[in-house]
């Protein structure tokens, strides 16, 4: 058996919030969390507000260092590899794509930004790469010269996807990205993401509450509560036989909604 | 690669071009802009354009009225003052003092103020507080009063006045740039740019600076008009440029006792101040609206 693409071993994160002048409040956002993710697989992370989902996204994307524990990519610890390289291998898709684009920069500049920073390649090759990636995410070539305010919300999401994918990452982390999208757009993007996963073999970590989406995309579901994993299973099992109280309620509500609308 | 060529669109104009297009679509702003440009040209060519030396005293032609009066002559278009000096030449040379001095002070205080404000915003903790709040208290004092304060310490004179006005303008720039940079640094796109691997300097230069250009440009024009006013006011109070210098404010002050007998001595430099401040403010207003248009499109 080969080593999984992404291994997370007992990571924890403690925030130190200053409280008053000298005292500090320790908030344990994540307590000893472990999971593994294979190539071209998708893991969904759900949990209530304050359960540490977003902290997990930050830790994976390399915005913060975990207080303890290890994140391994291809069996190599990420703590000692170059931090820049790590940010290229695991890419974050932010919560609100529209806000995550610089309004004063052309789309092409923003998509190319990570490439320009990290790889010294020729101009022609870079342009080729830009147009290739834009085509892959369903953008037209002339969108390259646009400013973000000229694009629609779903096109902006596609731009953030292109920006993440231009450096050929291994893992994409979606920090509640699709929750603000409407139904038709979400359906389109789910198709797009499945296609990209198949052609590129990327692994996805999806953080969010969209159970309908999770059911379509995810291979495994991880349920978090108070910084701990309370359930981890294959998607089908979670939907058929939820183990924890929280998941039961979520799945029950989901079934009520979907069946209610069907019948 | 099939390009969608049904519509032969022009290339998407850059942000700068869009602002210029929006600005030039309003006639009044363009009039103000060209007035300002004209004044700048006059300022640079003042030695060539002035018909007489601004200090030269035509002893036999004291208080000659402007040419549109019956007694006036075309040789002295704006007339002469109480010492027989040609007012047109003095107004033209005065652009160097009042307008040129204002531009100089605004550029210097702008560079210093923006640098301090930006550094304060990018730093955290005590150092940031010192840079920011120390100068925040100075902001409570109006710039003119602050300039008078500096003059009270350093003594009067043109150099002192330039220094005083510069110091008076710095706090505004610090405040504006500090707030603008802070607002930009909190945005999601800066966070993503950090993950894309921008270094702090690249982040400032490529992401932060284009996004704070709008408040800074507007602050620059506002500061320019207030610098013109301050320099003229200090000149009028006889704290700034000293007597023979053709600074517009001090020209007005020297003509004050002739107000009833020779009103042109005081009104013509006054009109020059008025037109320059008005056109600077209109250009600022136009730029502000152009940026607004950009947001809403």
UniProtKB/TrEMBL annotation, chain A:
Q: Which UniProt keywords are present, listed alphabetically?
A: ATP-binding, Cell inner membrane, Cell membrane, Membrane, Nucleotide-binding, Transport
User: In which compartments does the protein localize?
Assistant: Cell inner membrane
Cell inner membrane found in the keyword field: yes
* Gene Ontology molecular function terms on file: ATP binding
* Major localization class: membrane
Q: How does it sit in the membrane?
A: Peripheral membrane protein
Q: Which SUPFAM superfamilies match?
A: P-loop containing nucleoside triphosphate hydrolases (SSF52540)
Q: Where is the ABC transporter domain?
A: 6-251
The record's listing under InterPro entries reads: AAA+_ATPase, ABC_transp_ATP-bind, ABC_transporter-like_ATP-bd, P-loop_NTPase
Bilayer-crossing residues are none
Family per record: Belongs to the ABC transporter superfamily.
What's the protein called, per UniProt?
ATP-binding cassette domain-containing protein
From TrEMBL, chain B:
Q: Which InterPro entries match?
A: BP-dependent_transpt_permease, MetI-like, MetI-like_sf
Q: What is its main location?
A: membrane
User: Which SUPFAM superfamilies does the UniProt record give?
Assistant: MetI-like
This protein is called what? Answer: ABC transporter permease subunit
Is Ribosomal protein set as a keyword in this record? no
Q: Which UniProt keywords apply?
A: Cell inner membrane, Cell membrane, Membrane, Transmembrane, Transmembrane helix, Transport
Domain ABC transmembrane type-1 positions: 95-284
Its transmembrane ranges are: 27-50, 99-122, 134-155, 161-185, 216-241, 261-283
Family indicated by similarity:
Belongs to the binding-protein-dependent transport system permease family. OppBC subfamily.
**Gene3D superfamilies according to UniProt:** MetI-like
As for subcellular location, the record says: Cell inner membrane; Cell membrane
What membrane topology is annotated for this entry?
Multi-pass membrane protein
